[in-house]
Design a protein that fits this description.
Helices cover about 45% and strands about 15% of the residues. It is of the alpha+beta class. The protein has a single domain, classed as Aminoglycoside 3'-phosphotransferase, Chain: A, domain 2 (Alpha-Beta Complex), CATH 3.90.1200. The strands form three sheets. A five-stranded antiparallel sheet has the order 1-2-3-5-4, sandwiched between helices. Strand 8 and strand 9 form a beta hairpin. It starts with 5 loop residues before the first helix and ends with a helix. This is CHK kinase-like domain-containing protein. InterPro entries: CHK_kinase-like, EcKL, Kinase-like_dom_sf. It holds the Pfam family EcKL.
Length: about 400
């Protein structure tokens, strides 16, 4: 389905806002442009609702509806029957336990993690009960952050230092609270975080995925100075394909193993600014469809190499890693955890262990991130051929910088 009816909205909103709610009027239109989001159909909804016995209590709601993408190729990539459930569990379970843990420890406002948008309702099927499998009728209703002065960054330009610092500090706390739940409330952790991290189905066979490796290598051949790294890149691609299909080949390590976003790039976060200001003061994370129980440094490295403006990562990488560590340990300490296992050196060791597994992920993601806006396909037109067609000059520039830096650091 690609739209929601009045009855759909009422069924989704009533569990949160009350059974007497009636949608008096609403409008719906596409929210995102091609290339902004392939995992969902995104609609901007403006609704006027009334409540109360006399129907005089009016409220205007600015919402975002997330619906499943068209069937076919995108269903094979994103596995909506499972990934929709994972995202709903993040909003309904993980978010609440993060808040509860922080409230119990009286975390002050300036340290309080609040990165989840408000969820107004969700369903996996037309049934009123949220199940363990979603179908084409699945939907999630979220607050429209744009009306609260939140804005997306520019995927091609990347984020400046202030935005990157805010994202990194909040990412560290996002990871740390999961680790804290694991330490302090293991049963709650199992019932919330691990439930959200249930494995999704592999949409493609190993042979199908390996068949795409030569296509990327042909692109890399066209980048001056990168042809000498083709063997490194082929090994990195084969490593990621094998470990994605069999996660036991690169399991998460304790004590850092945690809830990871797994798709933490510029379009999956929105920043809020003070009135008439350009300095971000808050950030919200988006799209929890493919969260995993994995190493937190995979999110950190993926973000730094896909979403930062020119020069920001290269000039500040060590400082940003230290900023991550400071926020990670500060959050753990604030909720009562022993931070002695989480030394700065142990974090660097964790990065050296898991950064190589992000190499192919980063390289493939740079293709749509750097794509010229006029060349980005619509949802219905996405397939492997369109993914590899017409790599932009910006992609070649960023890919070269990434490849050379990964080789220098011993990660490729």
């Amino acid at each position: 389905m690609s739209q929601l009816s009045k009855e759909d909205l009422e069924d989704l909103l009533r569990p949160q806002l009350g059974n007497d709610l009636v949608v008096k009027f609403f409008t719906s239109q596409p929210l995102t442009q091609a290339g902004d989001n392939y995992g969902s159909i995104m609609l901007a909804i403006e609704a006027t609702v009334v409540q109360g016995a006399d129907g005089t209590s009016n409220q205007n709601l600015s919402l975002v509806a997330k619906l499943v993408p068209p069937s076919g190729f995108l269903w094979r990539i994103f596995d909506p029957p499972n990934t929709v459930c994972k995202e709903i569990n993040c909003y309904m379970l993980v978010k609440e336990e993060y808040k509860k843990l922080q409230d119990e420890n009286c975390i002050p406002e300036d340290k309080f993690l609040d990165v989840f948008p408000r969820c107004y309702g969700a369903r996996t099927t037309l049934s009123k009960k949220i199940g363990d499998k979603a179908d084409k009728n699945a939907a999630i209703l979220l607050e429209n952050l744009k009306t609260a002065n939140y804005r997306l960054g520019d995927r091609r330009m990347g984020l400046d230092l202030k935005h990157v610092q805010l994202a990194v500090s909040q990412l560290a706390r996002f990871h740390a609270l999961s680790v804290a739940l694991k330490i302090l409330k293991p049963q709650v952790f199992k019932n919330t975080v691990l439930k959200a991290c249930k494995p999704q189905n592999a949409g493609f066979t190993e042979a199908e995925l390996l068949a795409n490796v030569p296509k990327m290598l042909e692109i890399i051949k066209t980048i001056p100075g990168c042809d000498i790294y083709l063997d490194n890149l082929q090994k990195a691609a084969e490593l990621q394909i094998k470990t994605n299909l069999d996660e036991s080949l690169l399991p998460p390590r304790e004590p850092y193993a945690t809830l990871t976003h797994t798709d933490f790039w510029v379009n999956n976060m929105m920043f809020c600014y003070e009135k008439n200001g350009n300095v971000p003061v808050r950030v919200k994370f988006l799209d929890f469809q493919i969260v995993k129980y994995s190493s937190p440094v995979r999110d950190l490295i993926f973000f730094l190499y896909t979403s930062t403006a020119e020069g920001i990562r290269s000039e500040n990488q060590e400082d940003l890693i230290r900023l991550y560590h400071e926020n990670f340990t500060d959050c753990l300490k604030a909720v009562g955890c022993d931070i002695s296992p989480f030394t700065y050196q142990s974090l660097l060791d964790e990065i050296d262990m898991f950064a190589p597994a992000e190499a192919d992920h980063i390289l493939y993601m740079l293709l749509p991130i750097c794509a010229d806006k006029e060349s980005v396909p619509e949802l219905s037109g996405v397939d492997f051929e369109t993914i590899f067609s017409k790599p932009s000059d910006l992609f070649k520039t960023k890919a070269k910088e990434f490849i050379i830096d990964f080789v220098k650091r011993g990660w490729l």
